[in-house]
Design brief:
The complex is a heterodimer of chains A (327) and B (290).
Chain A (H helix, E strand, L loop, with lengths): L2 H5 L1 H22 L2 H27 L7 H16 L6 H23 L4 H21 L1 H4 L5 E2 L5 E4 L4 E4 L3 H24 L1 H18 L4 H27 L1 E2 L6 H14 L5 H17 L6 H15 L3 H15 L1
Helix pairs in contact in A: 2-8, 3-8, 3-10, 3-11, 3-12, 4-5, 4-10, 5-6, 5-10, 8-9, 8-10, 9-10, 11-12, 11-13, 11-14
Chain B lengths: L4 H31 L6 H19 L2 H24 L7 H23 L15 E4 L2 E4 H23 L1 H11 L1 H6 L4 H27 L5 H16 L4 H21 L4 H15 L11
Antiparallel strand pairs in B: 1-2
The chains are: A mainly alpha (327), B mainly alpha (290).
C-alpha cells in the first residue's frame, strides 16, 4: 500500500483540478477556432446546468423551466443593446442579472407554494409562459425573428495594456473560462454555506427542518433566486458568444436539454454538470452531421440514463473507481 | 336573450374546447391520483393518437374507425411503456418516473416528424356532422355541438366507471392504500399498467376528436400538455370533480380571452393558475398535502 497516495486523496484531487484548469487555459493557443468555440459553448452550458443542479441536486426541486432565466439574461443584454443603445458591459451585466433574479423571485414565489411533482409542472408552465411572452411581445423582443446583439463589446482593462475584445474568439474564451471558474467557486461556496446545508436538509426531510424552526419557504426561495442568477449569467455569456438569441432558446426543449445535461453528468455534484454539458454538446455536434434525428437520440440517452444510471457519468466513474480500488 | 346573444357562440365553442380538455386531462389526473406520476408524455399520446387517426381516416375515409383505432393502438403503446420502463422505477421514487416520461416527449416528437413530416394536417369531420346550424344569427358548426355531447357522455361514462363500478372501486382502493389493496389480493401493478393505458387511450381519443378543430402539427403535444397541466393544477390533481370544473373554467377562459382580449388571451390561463396557487395551492377541489 502506498501511504503517500492514500493519505492525501484530497491533495491528489486538487492537483488534478489545477492541471485541468491549466490545460483549459492553454486551449485557445493550441486548438483550432471551432474547437475553442465548442469549448466556450460547453463551459456556458455547463454553468447553466450547474445552476439547475443547485436547485435539483441540493434542494431537491426539479425545475423544468430553467431556460426562462437563461433567456432573461440573454434577452436583457440584447434588448439593452438594440433598444437602449447601451453596449457597456458594466451596465448590461448587472441589469441582466437583476432581471433574471427578479424573474426567479416571481416564479419561485408562486411555484414554491407547492412541492415535488406539482412544482415541476408549474415551473414548466411558467417557462412556457415566458416563451409565449417573448414570441408575442414583438416590439420589445423581436418575436420569432429573435434578437441580435449587434457589435460585440471591447473592454479596456488597465488601458492601454490589456484590451479584451469579445469578438475575438480567444479573448472571449478566456473571459468565459474565468467567469465560469469564479461562478463554480461561488456555487461550491453556496453549497458549503449554512444556506446550502439547510437546503440539503430540506431535500432530505423538509418537515424535520421546519420543526427545527427554519422557514423552509424562504430558504427554498433563496436557493431558487441564486440558481436563477447563475442561469442568467450563463444567458449573458451566451448572448455575447452567439450575438443572437431566438425564442427557441427559452422553450421546453432547452429546459429539457439542460436537465439531461445535469442527469447525464450526475445530480448533486456541480462539476458533473460540465461533464454532462460537454458529453451532450460533443455528441450533438458529431451526430448532427450524420442524422436529423438528434432529438430522438437525445430522448433515448435521457431514458437510458434515468433507467440504468440515474447517478450519471460521475456515478459511473465513481463506481468504476471504487471497483478498481478494491482490486 | 338579446344582451347575451353575442356571448352564446363563444360560450358554445368554449364548451366544446372544455370537453376536449376534459378528455385529455381526465387521463392525466387519474394516472396521477393512482400512481403519483405526472405523465409529461400525455400530450405526446394525444398527438400520436391524432396522427394515427389522421392516417386511418385518410386510407379508409371513415372517421369513426379512426376514432376507434387510434385510442386502442395508443392505449397498447401506453400499457407496454408502463410495463417496460415505469414499473422498474417504482421503488426509486416518482421524480425519476416523471423525468422518464419527459424523455418520451423528445422521442415522440421526433418520431412524429419522421413518420408524418412537419406539415400541418387536419382531419375532416365526418360527413354527417359537416354542416352548420344557425345560432344567434351566425352559423355554428354542428361538429362542435357533437363534441359537447360526446364529451358529456364520456364524462358520465368515466364517472360511472371510476365512482360506481367495481373496476373503479379497485382503482380507488389503490389510490387510498396500495399495501392494503395488495393484501386483499388486488394485483396493483396490473391495475397501474391498465390505468396508464386507459389514460393514454383517452388522450389519443382527444387527439382524434380535436384534430378537425385544432389541427395536427409537431408541437401541439406540448401546447396540449401545458393547458392540461394548468387544468389539473387549477382543479386539483387526482380528483375527478376538479378535473371537470377545471376544464370548464380554463376552456371558457381561453375561448373568451381569445375573442375579447386577443393579445392577452394566453396569459389569462396562467393568471388563473397563479391566483389559484396563492389562494389554494392544492387546487379548487384538491385535498391538502400532508
Amino acid at each position: 500500500m502506498n501511504s503517500s497516495v492514500t493519505q492525501s486523496p484530497a491533495m491528489a484531487g486538487r492537483y488534478i483540478v489545477l492541471a485541468l484548469i491549466a490545460a483549459l487555459a492553454l486551449v485557445p493557443f493550441l486548438a483550432p477556432k471551432y474547437m475553442v468555440n465548442l469549448l466556450t459553448e460547453i463551459l456556458i452550458f455547463g454553468l447553466l446546468a450547474a445552476s439547475l443542479d443547485l436547485v435539483l441536486g441540493y434542494t431537491g426541486l426539479a425545475s423544468l423551466g430553467h431556460a426562462a432565466f437563461f433567456g432573461a439574461g440573454a434577452y436583457t443584454v440584447g434588448i439593452l443593446a438594440v433598444k437602449g443603445h447601451c453596449t457597456s458591459v458594466l451596465a448590461a451585466v448587472p441589469a441582466a442579472l437583476l432581471v433574471s433574479m427578479v424573474l426567479a423571485l416571481i416564479v419561485g414565489f408562486f411555484s414554491l407554494r407547492t412541492s415535488g411533482i406539482y412544482f415541476l409542472m408549474i415551473t414548466l408552465a411558467f417557462g412556457q409562459m415566458l416563451f409565449a411572452l417573448v414570441h408575442k411581445w414583438t416590439e420589445l423582443s423581436g418575436g420569432s425573428d429573435g434578437c441580435s446583439l449587434g457589435k460585440r463589446p471591447i473592454i479596456q482593462l488597465l488601458s492601454p495594456y490589456l484590451t479584451v475584445d469579445f469578438s475575438d474568439y480567444r479573448h472571449f474564451y478566456l473571459v468565459v473560462l474565468v467567469t465560469v471558474l469564479l461562478a463554480f467557486v461561488a456555487l461550491r461556496g453556496v453549497v458549503k454555506l449554512p444556506l446550502g446545508q439547510v437546503a440539503v436538509g430540506i431535500r432530505e426531510n423538509e418537515l424535520r427542518v421546519r420543526f427545527m424552526g427554519f422557514n423552509t419557504f424562504a430558504y427554498k426561495l433563496a436557493m431558487f433566486v441564486i440558481s436563477g442568477c447563475f442561469a442568467g449569467l450563463a444567458g449573458i455569456l451566451y448572448m455575447y458568444f452567439n450575438a443572437f438569441i431566438s425564442p427557441e432558446e427559452l422553450s421546453w426543449v432547452m429546459s429539457g436539454k439542460v436537465l439531461v445535461m445535469v442527469i447525464l453528468g450526475g445530480v448533486g455534484t456541480v462539476y458533473g454538470s460540465v461533464l454532462g454539458a460537454g458529453t451532450l454538446l460533443l455528441m450533438e455536434n458529431w451526430l448532427s452531421s450524420y442524422t436529423e434525428r438528434w432529438l430522438l437520440i437525445l430522448g433515448s440517452i435521457f431514458v437510458f440514463f434515468v433507467l440504468f444510471a440515474p447517478e450519471g457519468l460521475v456515478g459511473v466513474f465513481r463506481g468504476a473507481a471504487a471497483r478498481w480500488g478494491r482490486k | 336573450m338579446s344582451e347575451l346573444t353575442p356571448y352564446l357562440s363563444p360560450f358554445l365553442s368554449g364548451l366544446a374546447y372544455s370537453m376536449l380538455l376534459f378528455l385529455v386531462a381526465a387521463g392525466l389526473s387519474v394516472i396521477f391520483g393512482l400512481m403519483n406520476v405526472a405523465n409529461l408524455a400525455h400530450g405526446t399520446f394525444y398527438m400520436i393518437g391524432g396522427y394515427i387517426g389522421y392516417s386511418v381516416v385518410r386510407y379508409t375515409g371513415n372517421f369513426w374507425l379512426g376514432l376507434l383505432v387510434a385510442p386502442v393502438v395508443v392505449a397498447a403503446i401506453g400499457l407496454a411503456l408502463e410495463m417496460a420502463t415505469l414499473r422498474p422505477l417504482y421503488k426509486r421514487g416518482h421524480l425519476l418516473q416523471v423525468l422518464l416520461t419527459f424523455g418520451f416527449v423528445f422521442i415522440g416528437l421526433d418520431l412524429v416528424k419522421w413518420i408524418w413530416g412537419s406539415d400541418v394536417h387536419s382531419i375532416d369531420p365526418p360527413a354527417i356532422l359537416a354542416w352548420s346550424v344557425e345560432i344567434a344569427g351566425q352559423g355554428f358548426p354542428v361538429y362542435r355541438l357533437f363534441l359537447i355531447g360526446f364529451g358529456l357522455l364520456m364524462a358520465i361514462g368515466l364517472w360511472f366507471l371510476l365512482e360506481r363500478s367495481s373496476v373503479g372501486a379497485i382503482v380507488r382502493s389503490g389510490v387510498s392504500d396500495k399495501e392494503m389493496a395488495q393484501g386483499l389480493g388486488i394485483n396493483i401493478p396490473a391495475v397501474f399498467s391498465c390505468t396508464f393505458g386507459l389514460g393514454a387511450g383517452l388522450a389519443a381519443a382527444g387527439g382524434v376528436l380535436a384534430a378537425p378543430v385544432l389541427g395536427l402539427f409537431p408541437g401541439i403535444d406540448f401546447d396540449i400538455l401545458i393547458v392540461t397541466l394548468v387544468v389539473v393544477v387549477v382543479g386539483g390533481m387526482g380528483t375527478f370533480r376538479g378535473c371537470f370544473w377545471g376544464s370548464l373554467l380554463i376552456g371558457q377562459l381561453d375561448t373568451f380571452g381569445k375573442v375579447f382580449f386577443p393579445r392577452f388571451s394566453l396569459f389569462l390561463i396562467y393568471l388563473a393558475m397563479a391566483v389559484i396557487l396563492v389562494i389554494k395551492p392544492s387546487g379548487l377541489f384538491g385535498v391538502e398535502e400532508q
